[in-house]
Amino acid sequence: MSGVGWPPDDLSIPDDAWLLRRVNPRWFVADTTNGGLRLASGAFQDLTGRDGTRAMSVLVEQNVRELGKSPEDTLTGYEGWGLIAVLAGLVRQCGLTISWAPDPREGAFADAHAHVFGAKTGSVQKKLVAGSERRVWPVT
Amino acid sequence: MVISALERLPKRGLSDDDIRTTRPARSELPLLTRSEIQPQYEPIGTAPTHAETAWGPVRDWVRARIEPLRWLPLNWDSYGGHAVVPSVVDLAEPLVTALLLQRIPPPAFVPTSEGGLSLEWKVPSLEIVMYLPPTSSPWGDATAFVSDDESGEEWESTVIGAPARVAEALLRLAQSGVAP
User: Fold this and answer.
1) What are the respective helix, strand and coil percentages of chain B, to the nearest 5?
2) If you count Cβ atoms within 10 Å of the first and of the last residue's Cβ in chain B, which end, N or C, has fewer?
3) Is the CB of residue A33 less than 8 Å away from at least one CB of chain B?
4) Residues of A whose CB is below 8 A from B127
5) Contact B156 A126 (CB under 8 A)
6) Nearest-CA residue of chain A relative to B179?
7) Interface predicted TM-score (ipTM)
8) Which pLDDT does position B91 carry in this prediction?
9) CB neighbours of B111 closer than 8 A, spacing ≥ 6?
10) pTM for the complete prediction?
11) Is A62 in CB contact (< 8 Å) with chain B?
12) Which of A79, A64, A97 is nearest to A23 (CA)?
């Protein structure tokens, strides 16, 4: 599946690949059902880069590990932040596509960087929040 | 009052005149206790210490939570994210103030990477996300997503395209008795 202006969905990123996303503390909000924290829908939004690309950044876990690093290493320098992971298959079920996008700004993880393209509607955000796996969660 | 407030907010964003015309008269404002003003996750003592009827104190409470988002540093999200743009901050402050004065619980204020602001409410059976995008017309382009677990219904619309429906959902929050 693809949209106007999107790169084609790259199936070299398999459906069972975990996509990592760092979570700024402002994307944790109070969960009144249990007194803890929950992930905000706004954590899954696009950003238009300097090259005009409008997408959501993720790091592909398998590539992070191939670099000899752990997912938690992506939080180096981001103390107090969280880390969540979503399956590439879930992302595609939401009508989104995934494309490799090496980014030197990610430093050691440059080659693990990918973009998620497509409309992050409220419904899509809800599915991604519900389907995300907590890898690092702030202590409350 | 919520419907009329949403309908009267102009597409171009709010000016001082707009704020004066959409703000309820002092005599119409319901009393708000301290617990109603502050969200549950904030420590006691951060909200006004007495029941307030005035726009000012509620606005100040809202402003204290939204204004810092205007000054988020570039790359605050580690992905190149921008601060919430001024037009969105300037819209959100009177909007949320007006909603709180209608006894709608305060939302979570969630900045987005592209400079918009997501207002998020979530109670056990109802989730509402109102998104103010960083466009030239943040109110005209604002969207609302509502997920109702009771009815199984889920819908999304521009706010100005369905103000009554959005207001109805927000009023359910006020009636739920649960602070999100």
Assistant:
1) 40, 20, 45
2) N
3) yes
4) 126
5) no
6) A32
7) 0.92
8) 96
9) A26, A42, B69, B72, B76, B81, B83, B84, B117, B118
10) 0.82
11) no
12) A79
